[in-house]
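Batch 3, record 17
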Amino acid sequence: MSFQIACPNCGVRPVWEFHYGGPVTSSAPPNPTERQWGAYLFDKPNICGEQHEWWVHRSACKTWFTAKRDTRTNTVLSTAMHGEG
Amino acid sequence: MSASGHGVEFTFDGQTIRGVEGQSVTGALHAAGQHVLSRSFKYHRPRGLLCGSGRCPNCLCTVDGTPNVRICTTDVQPGMQVKSQNRFPSLGFDVLGIFDWFHKMMPVGFYYKKFYKPRWMWPFWEKFIRRIAGLGEINQARGGEGHYEKLNLFTDVAVIGGGLAGLKAALEAAEAGASVVVIDDQKALGGHLRHDPTLKPTDFDALIAKVTSHANIEVYTSATAIGAYEENYIAVLQGKRLIRIRAAQAVFTGGAWERPLVFTRNDLPGVMLASAAQRLIHLDHVKISGPIVIVTDNAQGYRTAAQIVAAKGSIASLIDLRDAPPAADTDLVRSLSIPVQAGRTIVAAEGSKHVTGATVALKNGGERRTISCRWIVQAVGFTPAISLLYQSGCSFVHDDRLGHVTITKFAKDVHAAGAITGAHDPSRAAWEGRRAGLAAAIAARPGDESLNAKRASLESSAPPATAPGAAPAAAALTPETALHFVSPGGEKKKFVCYCEDVTQKDVFDAIDEGYSNIETLKRYSTISMGPCQGKMCQASSVALCALHNRQSIEATGVPTSRPPETPTPLGALAGRTPHFVLARRTPMHGWHERAGAKFMDAGNWKRPERYTSPEEEYKAVREAAGLIDVSTLGKLELRGRDVVPFLEQMYPNKYADLKEGRTRYGIVCDGGGIILDDGTISRLGPDRYFLTTTTGNADAIDSWFRWNLASKPEWDVTLANVSSNYAAMNLAGPKSREILRGLTTADISPSALPYLAVGQFDIVGVPAVVFRIGFVGELGYEIHVPAEHGLYVWEKIYQAGQSFGLKPFGVEAQRRLRLDKKHILVSIDTDALSNPLEADLGWIVKFDKSDFIGKRTLQQCQARGPQNRLVGFKMADDSNPPEASLVLHEGRLAGRVTSCRFSPAAGTHVGLAWVPVELGKDGTSFNITIDGIPHEAIVQDAPFYDPKGEKLRS
Ligand code: FES
Ligand code: FES
Ligand SMILES: [Zn+2]
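Prediction for the assembled complex:
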């Protein structure tokens, strides 16, 4: 893996400066059953194609932000602070 | 023709050889009559010069202790020691050459079939196979091969391959203002034109000079690109250096590899590629003496023939696979009286250690006739060097007219030019190079309108693309090339893969056994998996696979190309980098060193494990006082209006009622209720909170908090990581208050600074934050001071403590002290399955709080009833179970020990263990297995030392 990510704070940097934080998921379901709760905790989507996900710039500014990435090509289509993009 | 220049002496297998400066080792060996260079991998067959350009396995030798060096691309050096590999006892007489006679016993898939049964024989076979099957020997002396290093380059345009197309591309891009890096795997730029004077344009040397002197161009020779990764990240191996290039645009101009013909005994020394013969003549300046038979299907064979004659070599016959060679080709040799035989091929090489003849036949196998000769030179077409383009994400299709694949779709920011695209004709290659260089420069630095105009005029002057027949003689490849480089008849000693000793018969057998897909064929037969990574065998293995499956080459496909493209020493990948793992030292590190501390690693930190003995240090803390450096703790400061709701969310216990000047123990759980970390949460001001984390989880918790804050941008919370701003030390023991009293004017009496209070006052004139907490179970003060004053405060406390019997203590003593109190260490006593209800921390989980991370899961766990329990135990006998010892119950694995130490307080070994709840009640005994023998342990709920916590609170 050698793709690059544009940190909203620091600009374009190689992927190994970042840490993947999983896909952005919706908030917990209200009054879930045990099964629903387990699915919410552990069944993370793994989309083949464009995915909205969390990344943190761990080797530099430590900012958490979200990115849209095409999981087939590892092309990062956009990045933004959460709630802004 | 003979070489001129300074003589250079080196040794080959101990024998002194004289070469000439600038000559390759193989050139010098050739001149000296040493034509066997190695023994093959499986059958130990003698092998000689084949490609001459670093693209086959035949010349791998150990050079000055470094194994697997290709000596055809290594220049002779005075005193160099070259040793052949894979022979026992010597190259000339290899006893394992006997394997060649037992061919039948070593069928394809040999290792899979023969050695897996009986199982008990495997250790024997393994030793034997390792002895005979390796390639070279690693220099096992420490630091044996010296240092490897890394170099990072950032450029607008990377040009991979410094032949005609690459040079043109580089120059065009550089003139357009782009920065350019040129990589070439040979020792000099020029590609195959270096050794093909017939094709070389007159201004070629001037072009090379322009490129090397251009201010925008950096050139790296003897540098092999080994992998192309996303977004044009290209890894290059140059000797002991790994170059990592990040290029905005990449232009691949790696040319094409000449490929061998598959015929009987085609691996004999004396059988070589035309380009190897050209290199001997034009680069090494040595003579190829003795009659030569050339086999060809294109102009390369004719050009080489003419060059050999010009170099005073003698051609016995030129065999052309084509029925009617074009006049453009035959004209090249017309005046040289070379006998040309059209419509024929070579079916076998004769000889045992070296070629003595070539058996020629019609392409259907008829009319066999042996011509005596010493050399067989093959010029039967090229395979474009597409592996890096493939890795970059380009798509390909097989072009039957060209006899090789061509690109159908380029990946983003990737270009190619020259023979790699099928443009074998120099004028077309040069034009493609310019076009690619210009396109790359425009893409890398958009905005210059004049460049677009230049591009338009360049496009309109395109020379014709290479097309069979229509193209100049130099490039003509026939339509049959796809299949005809496998000669008819005999299958056994027709080597397809030289690296792995795979024959045509092996390939057909594997296909008959069901491995008919090119990918499974590759894995089962190991074809194309050798040191050359298929450069010599990929085309023929695909052709044979197609032939035997009766399908087209296109339908057969090409095995996936993966990095590394060339065998790469692990040292190059692992070697020194600018990004070392940095060892972290606390401000008091030097003091610990002077005090004779023995250090241990805690993450990146170095921590004193002990100074004298843990027993002595333990005793000092229990009876007088001790001082431990805890600067490695993670420290976070939180401020803002919403800190309290944030803490309420992050921790299972309550913080709304935490008063200013108080501290509280807390654990952090994830959504699954799993313990991530523990530490203290203190309120230093109205909206100012100070948190500590464990040493090991400092970064993870920092990140976890930040992520939770990022998901709630509306919250007013500011988090600052102040871990390295503060030095911290823990002064603990019954005498600690007396010691501290002498160092501050603040009131530290039990009523002014009781257990779980936080004070902010000066100690020896340094502003400090002092927490009354006691991990080790004694009256204690965790003192945080600005890092730059850490050493000063430490020394003052140490000096003041001397008359009270204070001793510094290390991590080992601390672990014993805390175990007396059953205080857990997160990540040692807990793991990724531990929740607080089971880890005996149920009291901390406040289900009456509105919500916190992990609540839902912990509620379910509570409702279902905990399954396991982390218990304190003491041993009934004097045994000492090592950590991770197993707890067996009714013959089944029931749990494990996480910590165990001798406790002077309990008078026996005590520890923590995970056991099923039914074994976890106070006073229950269970068995811990040590070396297969069960030992009784007894559960104890109360701490082993000071069960009521009176000392802690004193
Ligand atoms: S002869 Fe040296 S690598 Fe082929
Ligand atoms: S010839 Fe090298 S891998 Fe087959
Ligand atoms: Zn950043």
